[in-house]
Amino acid sequence: MEVLEAAAIFGAGIAAGGINTIVGSGSLITFPTMVALGFPPVVANVSNNIGLVPGSVTGAYGYRQELKGQQGRLLRLGSASMLGALVGATLLLGLPAEAFQVIVPALIVIALILVVVQPRVQKWVLSRRENHSPHGGPWLWAGVLGAGMYGGYFGAAQGIVLIALLGIALDDDLQRVNAAKNVLSAIVNGSAAVLFIGMSVFSDTRIDWLAVLLIAVGSTLGGLLGAKVGRRIPPLVLRGVIVVVGLVALVVMLTGD
Questions:
Q1: Is 39 left (phi over 0), alpha (psi -120 to 50) or beta?
Q2: Are 69 and 129 in contact (CB under 8 A)?
Q3: What dihedral do alpha carbons 110, 114, 117, 123 form, nearest 10°?
């Protein structure tokens, strides 16, 4: 890996760590960057997932004040995130690489749509605030399970999905919802990472550890910065960057260039 390539991955890791903490679409920065640099898509996805784990943890830590009083809720929903992540990661490793080439472009399109419509989703959530259950219930658990499967297979925009689910089902402030989202995303990424690392020992699953290190260090810094300055960054700017990079990812994957 050349110095400029390493710098690009490191910078993408910083951006992804911050964006994951604030919005939840950081993989739309790191994944296409790695693909554009010539990494095979599955290798890029696995290495990216592992590298983003520290950033998820620091992002959750940055919202520790908003996490107070949510321990019971997160224990319950965290079980759904862990189970879903393991199922999604198993599908990633079990399905043929050709399937990833077909499925991921579709997932990127879905993720980009979610990024674009996020403001309307948030307004809808706020308009339904009075009808929220204080406990979420089994439907929220099932929704978080599905989001975990999505995140274990390809994590881009899982945070946006989680914010929508939690905001609809819980009677709580959106900042506390975002804090819970960060914890659940960390559980998804961490669970999938453990499976990926374990499978690399017993199978031919490939991990680029230098890329993992660069993304891990970058996302750690980005997670801390994102928690501090998140409310100061215009959401429109973030969404614009994510959409542009996501479109580049689609072009790269569909053309093979």
A1: beta
A2: no
A3: 140
What is the average pLDDT value for the chain, to the nearest integer? 82
Q: Are 165 and 148 in contact (CB under 8 A)?
A: no
**Cβ partners under 8 Å of residue 47, min gap 6:** 34, 39, 207, 208, 209, 211, 212, 215
Write the pLDDT tens digit of every residue in 128-139.
Answer: 656 556 567 888
Query: Tens digits of per-residue pLDDT, 181-218?
Result: 889 999 999 999 999 998 887 777 789 999 999 999 99
Among 158, 223, 232, 218, residue whose Cα is nearest residue 188: 158
Cα gap 150→86, rounded to integer Å: 10
Whether 117 shows a pLDDT value over 60: the answer reads yes
Question: Exposed/middle/buried for 68, CB within 10 Å: 0-12, 13-18, 19+?
Answer: exposed
The pLDDT tens digits for 46-98 are: 999 999 999 989 888 888 888 888 888 999 999 999 999 999 999 988 888 77
Rounded CA-CA distance 127/119 in Å is 12
Q: Where are the alpha helices (DSSP H) in 95-208?
A: 97-127, 137-153, 158-169, 174-202
pTM metric for this prediction: 0.82
